[in-house]
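Hi C.,

You asked whether I'd gotten around to modeling the 266-residue construct. I have! Everything is below, sequence then structure, no commentary in between.
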Amino acid sequence: MSLKALQEIGVRVILAVAAVLLAGCATPPPDDDPEAKAEFEQINDPLEPANRAIFEFNDTLDTYFLRPVAQGYRSVVPKFGRDRIADFLDNLQTPLYFANDLMQGNVSLAGVTVERFMLNTTFGVAGIMDVATPLGIPGHKSDLGQTFAVWGIGEGPYLVLPLMGPSNPRDAVGLGVEAVVDPLDYYLANNRMNWVLWTRFGISGISQREAYLDALDDIKRTSLDYYSAMRSLYRQRRSAQINEAENPGTTTVPTPDIHIDIPKIK
């Protein structure tokens, strides 16, 4: 199958998902029930019926494929090796972190990002080892969704994306744009090296899923409603990330978010 055909399939899938979401909007409570209406607006999940369907699909895929693969990865690759892979993948994201730091007006953080990249790429052997953190230069993540929020763009309703999980329209657009403008993905796609791009995508997904094995197992085991627990966790963490972007150094970001980077297809 050609890449063009894959692109066409991707567009159709996106349109189909959009149609399902629009058809699955929950009916807001009547105006004569102010408490229910306030709760509805606070949860910010008017697409809940469709979101739950996509969440169920993601959970099924995770249960029977992603989680077993992540468990196998953990059992085969020792922690030292997994940490080196995670550090390497994170270092590859540095150009996007740097660009978003600048667009958010965080010039000092942008300088830290450059400093970390130079140290980790040289003394850390192409980013395989994070040597900057032990030197007192901790890392951080900056994404386009955060940047949009700093610019004053609202999040929109809660949204569950196929494969990638919890999101919202603002963050979903940011994720899609970053997939297109990532300099490494752009280079790979334009030099007929899509196999490297997809390999990076796959390893990144496995590495991220392995990192969250215990946390997700605990949440799933202890929550009465796994969907609601994940929605609350995502929104709390996202709020903390945005506050950190607006006021660097003032926020402790809770439990890691869960998403898979999208590869660029060209």
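If it helps when you're writing up: Residues 1-24, 259-266 have pLDDT under 50 and may be disordered.

Thanks,
B.
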